Every structure is written in structure tokens, then in C-alpha cells.
Amino acid sequence: MFSRMSPQKYGFYELFIRHATIGLDGTRCLLGVLKTFPREKDSLSQVAGIEHECDSIAHMTIELLHRTFILPLDRDEIRNLVKTLDDIIDAVEDASRRILLFEVVEIPPRFVELVQVLLRAQEEVVKATKLLEKKRNTAELQSVMQEIHRLENEGDRLFHAGLADLFRDHAHDPLTVIKLKEILEAIEFAIDRCEDVSNLVEGIVLEHS
């Protein structure tokens, strides 16, 4: 496993990429379960292991930050970027955990659509981390930034539509509304944090180019 490897072998850019890539695996796991729910529901526990792996990478990054005198980016830029990447997988793990904790028996279709948007946003986040080391405001980077922004807007639309569905379909079951609303909010938060990563990468590139 990556977390068991010596952090001395890795630089900041590789750690960013690894964090984003492994976080993407967590969302793939969540989406796979939701598409077949409840048949593979127990597989949601795997998301916690993926979140722990990302935590290990985040800790490596901070450890490397403390040990490195000459940095490729400002200290605050490194801290903010790794924290925001961590927020994404934390929210994915939170949604997965709540599905199990709340003993959800049915997943509304809108939830699957929203997680599909999250997955696409995280794919763009991985691209952004791979382009970061160049520190050049290229057409490719701008395309990635624009796509993440578009997906965040799509996520907002699906989130509000999902809330409307909940209040309509479960009007006589407020407890179910509360449970599903918390899960929906966690997924929407993860999408928002993808855009925050995009904004951080864009700011870093503009600052250092």
C-alpha cells in the first residue's frame, strides 16, 4: 500500500496526485454500491479504508512540509490544497457511513446522478493535480477549471432537485427525509470542494507562473 511506503521517496506534486487518485477510488466504490443498492451495501465499508489511505497521504504531505526547507509552493498553499483534497474523500466516507448507520433501505435515483457528477468532478481534479507542477496557465488547465465549474453547477441543480424529491416523496416520513437529506448534503459538499481545489490550483498557477 502507498501509505506504507517511505514518505522520503515522494515529492509534493506526486502526493497531491496520489491523494486525488485514491480519493477517486472511494467515489467509484460508492457509485458502484448505489447502482446495485442494496445488493452490495456491505461494500460501503471499503470506503473507510480508502479514506484512511488518503489520511496517510495527507500526513505524509504535512510531514514533508515540516522537513523541507526549500518548497515548490508556499506553505499555506500546500496546507490548503491537501486539506481540501482531504475534505472531498471525508465527505464521501461520511455519506457512505451514514447510509449504513441510518439503515437506508432505498436510494433515490437522484442520489446516483449526483454521485456520477461527483465522480466526473474528481476525474477533473486528478487532471488538475497532474497539471499543477507545470505552473503554467495553459489551455488544457483552463479547460479543466471550466469543466469543474460546470459540474459544480450541475451538482447544485441535482442537489436542489433531490431535495424537492425528498420532501415530495417522503412528506409523511420526516425521519427518512432527515436521513436522506444528510447523505445528499455530504455528496453535494464533496462536489463543492472539488471546485475549491480547482480555485486553489488556478490561484497557485497564476501566482507562480
Secondary-structure topology with pairs:
Elements: H1 12-36, H2 45-67, H3 75-101, H4 109-132, H5 139-169, H6 174-208
Helix pairs in contact: 1-2, 1-3, 1-4, 2-3, 3-6, 4-5, 4-6, 5-6
Written description of the protein model:
The protein has 209 residues and is mainly alpha-helical. The chain has a single domain (2-208), classed as Phosphate transport system protein phou homolog 2, domain 2 (Methane Monooxygenase Hydroxylase, Chain G, domain 1, Up-down Bundle), CATH 1.20.58.220. Helix content is 79%, strand content 0%. It has six helices and no strands. The protein has helices at 12-36, 45-67, 75-101, 109-132, 139-169, 174-208. Helix 1 runs antiparallel to helix 2 (45-67). The chain is globular, with a radius of gyration of 18 Å. The chain starts with 11 loop residues before the first helix and ends with a helix. The model is unreliable at 1-7 (pLDDT under 50).
